[in-house]
Design a protein that fits this description.
Elements: E1 20-25, E2 28-35, E3 42-43, E4 46-49, E5 56-69, E6 78-85, E7 101-102, E8 110-117, E9 124-131, E10 136-148, H1 152-182, E11 215-220, E12 223-229, E13 237-238, E14 241-244, E15 251-264, E16 273-280, E17 286-289, E18 294-295, E19 303-310, E20 317-324, E21 329-341, H2 345-361, E22 377-380, E23 383-386, E24 395-398, H3 410-420, E25 426-431, H4 433-436, H5 448-463, E26 467-472, E27 475-476, H6 480-492, E28 499-502, E29 506-507, H7 512-517, E30 519-521, H8 536-540, E31 545-547, H9 549-558, E32 566-569, H10 571-574, E33 594-601, H11 610-614, E34 619-625, H12 643-657, E35 660-663, H13 687-694
Parallel strand pairs: 24-25, 24-35, 25-26, 26-28, 27-29, 28-32, 32-33, 33-34, 34-35
Antiparallel strand pairs: 1-2, 2-10, 3-9, 4-9, 5-8, 5-10, 6-7, 6-9, 11-12, 12-21, 13-20, 14-20, 15-19, 15-21, 16-17, 16-18, 16-20, 22-23, 30-31
Helix pairs in contact: 3-5, 6-9
Length: about 700
């Protein structure tokens, strides 16, 4: 550190740290830096190139530490940090230099030497003398030399040390696992005192259980359990339990009883009440995560939860972490926790079934075959005609999934099955503008994958001569953000003959005037609201707002020059269209026309209101279906018709008045369901009737509803 060719008062090539000085003592120059602010990091950072072909290096230097008072953590001391990186300065995998640290003053100058193997891909060595958040201290450093050395001896030494360490860890692990086998409970559970009853020390806390930040030991009707409470919003509250595993276990089942109350999730969807599990090897390093049962909402009293998972190779212990995971608020009661070895066969069988399901749902991407695409549609009177003036009757299904899960992959297969096997010539695709722009916590690509998936579906429909209805699956009343979406989507699908625009799923609790022209929509709500169908975060947004009306959405679409047919749903959850005959019809602004959308289910009367409207405008029955009583729990059972009488009569009504329709829903978990599972077996009460109608079977309407 003696050269200063630029005469700037600092040794060449060395960065100047805060509180750094270049000092000469008895003719010897060196760098000194000091910590003058308690807890502050003081560091000198320098990079050295690693010559090509270097397999090992020796780092030597002289140091002197004085006036050192260490910080609040064990590693808040005087140390040199060194690490190998690639050319982009990313730390490389492999061995790193084991640098010394000092927690007290040195006895004058000390000479230090460290030898290290160079990991594959290393291009730089970061060298960082530091006073690491100490309270005070001074670090003098001099005579830093980094030179290549022969790696043979060091490699042998490291290999021997690693073998000895591995043998020691293996021996220790075997002892621990044998002990764990002997300590198994009478019921076979690895977790002692899982029922929380034993409190042998009388400390009002169950034996063997750690303490959360905030929690209590409770008793109800003679039963003991742990209660975990959220200490404050967005903070983790966890009990950390480690258990050694008996040898030979291939799979485990975790069971527990829990009661969750007053739960409000945190900032992310997965910030909830849950038990986290992870496996560790003999050295205590995490191998993988096990099952993680979660409770995303309050439970109805005490409930039993369970999770089965495989034990990874090399696992010696498992960590069980009951937690309120950064929730806003909530309480989690926990009792009767067991962890038992089980036969892995059912888990392997499920994995194989999941693999086959993934293979079954795969649809290879297709290039557009525009010679097979259907012709552009337009509205003429109450009919829909193609560009050859042939009447088109749109019939099909709703392929649900993308309105709730941005990464849903089954929907692509559903579209193909709906067209190829169920003979649909139209598929309604519910989507979400939030996902279109990639604003879900689960999306990191700005929505590109989501938009690409919709493009793929458009191509799959077009190549099969079918149409796609793009449904913005929103409720209440249109907002400016919905118009912004339609400007974007309409520009993207402008004059694409495959695509029709269903501009707003289900308006409700608004007047016809607001529906048409817009206006203020208050927070007052009547009847059932969409809380049945949307997330808690979205429910919070249901405040008073200014609606732009359905006409505002039409104007947004037409402003792009897109002429695609627009579908506009009525009020009262799209069940009431009477206003369009009373002066509230919409202005198409020079496009290919407007169809009016109607939604009806097995609890809705009023079919007779539709034929007069159908005489003037084409009607698109965007959602229709029926479930057995008890499935639609938010509708009184007395108001629900038997699906076996509703389904054939509704299809007869559709056919009699030639109403365009897409059944709800081509999904086994979105009632009323048209299919039982992902083999696409039709449900007997609705799917079978719909499939027969799509195949050309005629139905008779026996009576109006």
């Amino acid at each position: 550190m003696s050269a200063d060719s630029d005469k700037d008062g600092w040794p060449d090539g060395w960065p100047k740290p805060k509180e750094g000085r270049w000092i000469t003592d008895e003719g010897n120059p060196f760098i000194r830096f000091s910590s003058t602010t308690p807890g502050e990091m003081v560091m000198m950072y320098r990079e050295f190139n690693v010559p090509e072909g270097t397999e090992a290096v020796e780092i030597s230097w002289r140091q002197r530490i004085t006036g050192l008072t260490v910080g609040s953590k064990a590693w808040f001391d005087a140390r040199i940090i060194a690490e190998f990186t690639d050319a982009e300065r990313k730390k490389v995998e492999g061995p790193q230099p084991r640098m010394p640290y000092a927690r007290k003053d040195t006895a004058g100058w000390e000479e230090k030497t460290v030898q290290a193997l160079v990991p594959e891909g290393a291009k730089l060595l970061k060298f960082m003398p530091s006073l690491f958040q100490v309270e005070s201290g001074t670090f003098d450093i001099d005579d830093v030399v980094i030179r290549p050395i022969d790696a043979t001896a060091l490699r042998e030494e490291n290999k021997k040390a690693e073998e000895e360490k591995a043998a020691s860890l293996a021996k220790n692990a075997a002892t621990r696992q044998e002990k764990a086998a002997k300590n198994l409970g009478a019921d076979g559970s690895i977790i002692p005192n899982g029922n929380m009853e034993a409190d042998s020390k009388g400390k009002s806390w169950p034996d063997g259980w750690g303490h959360p930040k905030t929690g209590s030991y409770e008793k109800e009707e003679g039963n003991s359990f742990i209660r975990i409470t959220a200490p404050e919003p967005d903070k983790m509250n966890i009990i950390y339990q480690t258990y050694d595993l008996p040898p030979g276990i291939q799979a485990l089942e975790l069971k527990f009883r829990t009661r969750v109350t007053n739960l409000k999730k945190g900032k992310m969807p997965w910030f909830d009440a849950r038990i986290i599990t992870e496996f560790k090897d003999a050295a205590g390093k995490k191998i993988s995560q096990g099952g993680a049962p979660n409770m995303g909402s309050n439970t109805k009293g005490w409930v039993e939860k369970s999770s089965m998972f495989l034990v990874p190779e090399g696992a010696v212990s498992i960590v069980i972490m009951p937690s309120l995971f950064q929730v806003t608020s909530g309480t989690m009661d926990l009792d009767d926790v067991t962890l038992k070895a089980i036969d892995p066969a059912p888990i392997y069988a499920k994995k194989e079934a999941d693999k086959k399901a993934a293979e079954a749902r795969y649809v290879p991407p297709e290039e557009p075959k525009k010679d097979k695409w259907p012709k552009m549609l337009r509205v003429v009177g109450n009919k829909v005609l193609d560009s050859d003036d042939k009447e088109v009757w749109l019939q099909g299904v709703n392929a649900g999934g993308l309105e709730t899960l941005p990464h849903d992959m089954q929907v692509i297969k559903s579209v193909v099955v709906a067209i190829d096997e169920w003979k649909s010539n139209c598929v309604r695709l519910p989507i979400n503008e939030t996902f279109w722009y990639g604003k879900s916590p689960y999306q990191k690509d700005g929505g590109k994958e989501y938009r690409d998936k919709i493009d793929q579906i458009v191509t799959l429909c077009g190549n099969r001569g079918a149409y796609l209805v793009l449904d913005l699956h929103r409720f209440r009343a249109p907002k400016q953000e919905h118009a912004d979406f339609w400007k974007d989507a309409a520009t993207h699908y402008k004059d694409n003959p495959v695509v029709l625009f269903d501009i707003f799923n289900e308006p409700y609790a608004i007047s016809w005037e607001i529906w048409q022209k817009g206006g203020f929509v208050s927070t007052n709500k009547t009847g059932v609201d969409e809380s049945q169908f949307i997330s808690a975060e979205e429910r919070k947004k249901l405040e008073g707002f200014e609606s732009i009306g359905m006409q505002g959405l039409i104007d947004a679409v037409r402003s792009t020059g897109a002429k695609n047919i627009i579908i506009a749903g009525g009020i009262f959850w799209c069940n009431d269209l009477t206003g369009v005959l009373k002066g509230y019809a919409l202005d198409d602004k020079g496009g290919n026309g407007i169809m009016y959308s109607w939604h009806t289910y097995h609890w809705h009367p009023g079919w007779e209101r539709i034929p007069p409207i159908a005489e003037k405008y084409p009607i698109f029955l965007g959602e229709v279906g029926a479930s057995p009583k008890g499935v639609m729990g938010f509708i009184p059972e007395k108001d629900q018709e038997d699906p076996y009488t509703f389904s054939p009569d509704m299809l007869g009504f559709i056919q009699k008045y030639k109403i365009h329709w897409t059944g709800w829903c081509f999904h086994p978990k979105a009632a009323p369901c048209m299919i039982e599972d992902w083999t696409y077996k039709p449900t007997p009460y609705w799917g079978e009737f719909a499939k027969r109608a799509l195949g050309g079977e005629a139905f008779e309407m026996k009576k109006m509803r």
